[in-house]
Amino acid sequence: MTDLELDVVEFVLTAAIYDDNDRFEPDDLPATHRSVFWSDGRIERPVTATQTTASEATGVDRPWEAISGLMFTDYDDFSGTLSLTDRSMAEKWYLDRVDDQRIEENPVLAAHFADERDVDYEHAREHNRPARADRAFVDSLLEEYFDEDEEDEMLDLVDVQTPEDVDLTLNDIVLTAEQEGEIQKIVKAIEHRQYLARIGLREVGKLLFVGPPGTGKTSVARALGQDLGLPVVEVKLSMITSQYLGETAKNVEKTFEVAKRLAPCILFIDEFDFVAKTRSSDEHAAIKRAVNTLLKSIDEVSLVQDEVLLIGATNHPDQLDAAAWRRFDEIVNFPKPDAPMRTDILKVVTREMDIVDFSPKELAELTEGLTGSDLRLVLREAVLEALTEERTTLTQQDLVDAIKDFEERDTLKNLDMIDGDHDALVAGGLGDSHDHGNDL
Ligand SMILES: Nc1ncnc2c1ncn2[C@@H]1O[C@H](COP(=O)(O)OP(=O)(O)OP(=O)(O)O)[C@@H](O)[C@H]1O
Ligand SMILES: [Mg+2]
User: Fold this and answer.
1) Which structural domain range is residue 250 located in?
2) Preceding peptide of 264 cis, ω within 30°
3) Which residue's alpha carbon is nearest to atom 11 within ligand 1?
4) Same domain, 146 and 121
5) What total of structural domains would you count in the chain?
């Protein structure tokens, strides 16, 4: 019970202190507190602690019940407002129960208690997610940019992931040494972008991720956003061919505008090979125009000036022409994982699982040619199989069996990938292989 009590008191106290002092900005509120106060892209004063806001921010079902036993709290039935009748008593009560580390997770309180405790406001601010990365802020900005009729089309083209939406960090992804090096460089470049601007070094911050499907390109972009506290604006270039052809060039421009408004952010452009395809073939003029707009927009956007990190991704580097290549200043290779990497991936994806006689090394030897995505699917199959026998503990043998199943299914999948040539499927006589359902 005490924990819930503490969470609610902290929320009410933070709101009260925030309202008292104009120098506090939304960036000073902890992200969980802030999320309940957004309205039309703004956080207006006063920020009021009510049954509803307190419950959403803290996850406590009935916040008033949680704190009603305390001497210094009050509740207004009519407005649903939670308040503190004796602020100094509330502060003392709170300070008696928290350590410095907890206070530093809340910039408002870190500033307020800087004299009483060994806490640093600047440090707290730096580690608090900035307000412009909040889902609610991003949504209100998207609404502002794309009016109603266009919105559906734009939603096909652009998808913004905020740190709130992403449940994945770089620790969940097994990287090659080269990938780690490139990511370290880019993290440093973002950190020191003012220095780079000063010395006039502009050619940083455009990466191209190259590799087969399922090797972690999208995941790394999202995890990087999560780790850096930045929104990730995702664009699938094939979506450019959506029905309103005349609008596509304009939509590409808007995408870059949105990215610049959301900055600092990551702009992730998937299926980059699409650019090359349209330039070489006799595509519709509107698509060519859109692609030219895209290339021009890429030239004009900059990490150093606009704080937009551009990441392109492709499965078909062979299809990229010189015009596309030279727009990126680093190429990051996403190869299929080798045996040691597969071992590590298997360890990562099974972190939360119970597996008897687990030998990731042995499994890695059986999974030559499989990607990280494939390994995840193998695990999923093994888990579901075991569940059909009411088991939540797996065995090494379950995984070996799942690998065999996967390989049978993989034959199907690979044929399917011969550019949608379904005749090949029939001619291949796949009738005798058994289909294990979807080939995701
Ligand atoms: N190296 C890896 N370590 C851990 N997980 C991985 C790795 N590679 C892929 N995965 C997992 O596989 C799944 C698919 O990866 P992801 O979507 O990032 O691949 P991708 O390279 O973007 O593929 P595509 O080219 O098809 O878009 C994700 O769940 C991801 O976490
Ligand atoms: Mg992807």
Assistant:
1) 133-333
2) yes
3) 373
4) no
5) 3
pLDDT band at 149 (very low <50, low <70, confident <90, very high): low
pTM of the model: 0.80
Q: Which residues lie across from 330 on neighbouring strands?
A: 207
| One domain for residues 236 and 318 | yes
Index of the ligand 1 atom closest to the CA of residue 219: 18
Distance 12 CA to ligand 2 centre (A): 42
Residues 75 and 137 in one domain: no
Q: Are residues 83 and 172 in the same domain?
A: no
Predicted local confidence at residue 47, as pLDDT = 95
| Same domain, residue pair 156 and 298 | yes
Q: Which residues of 60-92 are buried (b: 16+ CB within 10 A; e: fewer)?
A: beebbebbeebebbebeeeebbbbbeeeeebbe
Pocket-testing residue among 161, 218, 219, ligand 1, by greatest number of atoms within 8 A of Cβ: 219
Output the ligand 1 site: residues, CB below 6 A: 173-174, 211, 213-219, 315, 334, 337, 345, 348, 371-373, 376
CA nearest to 346, candidates 328, 365, 327, 333 = 365
pLDDT in tens, 92-101: 999 999 999 9
Nearest atom, ligand 1, residue 373 CA: 12
Taking each helix axis from N to C end, the angle separating 285-300 and 273-280, rounded to the nearest 10 degrees, works out to 130
Ligand at minimal distance from the CA of 210 is: 1
Average pLDDT over residues 126-144: 86
* Residue 347's CATH number: 1.10.8.60
Residues 274-307: tens digit of each pLDDT: 887 766 666 677 778 888 889 999 999 999 989 9
The reply to whether 110 and 235 lie within a common domain is no
